[in-house]
Amino acid sequence: MAPLGIAIVGSGIFVREQHLPAALATPLLTIKAIWSRSLSSAEQAAKLIPEGSQAAVDLYSSDSGPGKGYDDLLKRSDIVGVILALPIPDMPAYIEKALAAGKHVLGEKPIAPTIGKALELVEYYKKVSADAGGQAATWSVAENFRFIPAYDYAVEQIKTLGKMTAFHVKVCNLMEESNKYYGTAWRAKPEFQGGFILDGGVHFTAALRKLLGDENSVQSLSAYTAQVRSWLPPVDSVHAVLKAKSGVIGTYVQSAGSSAGSFQFQIVCENGVVEAESRKCVVIRGHGADAKREEKDFTPTFGVKEEVHAWGEALQTGKPNPAQSPEQAVADLELIEKMLNSGQQGGSSQSTEYQ
């Protein structure tokens, strides 16, 4: 199959370190253009494309003058889709413009700043699709944690251990002021709920939802939130108790302000335990002295190359990947938003609607 032409919209850290290499790695896509707010940042991103790896890319920006803006990029017939990676508050408007122009979209997570805005986007997408008689461009959401092989393996192992009885997530680190991601103004002074809890949290709720499966989807939760570090507004920590529709109860702890580093996804079943992370999956079969520990290592990956390749396959075949559906991303966001709402209300019980 001939590679399909795409554009990358945005030139921030994640684009430079993840999206560009991922798009270059798949034979299903070829980068035709890069857009950024400033021409200088678009140029910096373009310099990362190895010479001779593909044809030269065209650059677009807000300050490039007539014929070189975002709207102009969307008019190009040789560009069938765009990878969008912009500040969270800006994403919805750029998604809508791309879909209206008939371009397929792979938009970075979270799907939107709030569930309300996410649902508006979903309705807009449905309208565009209906108006086009089913021939409209597709909208996919880039959640790379759904494409990490270790979690796929963990899901299969969970199925061999009987009924799920508990689950625990603990992801803690310290987002220091010197961190490169803190250095981006829209993250340091967020104009969206939850700050780093939202920005990073949807990764972790996506992984949790994958491990739980539909039969153990979260039905309700209660949480407390706090701002531990002065430079991480509005909150940097959440501690929650979640109850699945199956009755299984679990815990979710996330902090960007913690001195104690931790990255744990633990699923407890009747006949054993699965502990998963991006590079390793540990399976403990049985109990007590008779328990047997199995450990499987995986090639380190953040899942971005896998997700971009999956999007390329979807464009080539005309069949969107279910793991990249807006509905999945809405469910990821809902869990974080419900935790934040519960925390604001002193730990009130919150019921889910979109799991």
Automatic annotation (TrEMBL):
User: GO: which molecular function terms?
Assistant: nucleotide binding; oxidoreductase activity
Give every Gfo/Idh/MocA-like oxidoreductase N-terminal domain span: 5-128
**Which InterPro entries does the UniProt record give?**
Gfo/Idh/MocA-like_OxRdtase_C, Gfo/Idh/MocA-like_OxRdtase_N, NAD(P)-bd_dom_sf
One annotated Gene Ontology cellular component of this protein: cytoplasm
A UniProt-annotated Pfam family: GFO_IDH_MocA
The biological processes this protein is annotated with in GO are: NADPH regeneration
User: Which Gene3D superfamilies does this UniProt record tie to the protein?
Assistant: Dihydrodipicolinate Reductase, domain 2, NAD(P)-binding Rossmann-like Domain
Record-annotated Gfo/Idh/MocA-like oxidoreductase C-terminal domain positions: 156-346
Protein's name according to its UniProt entry: Oxidoreductase
Q: Which organism is it from?
A: Microdochium trichocladiopsis
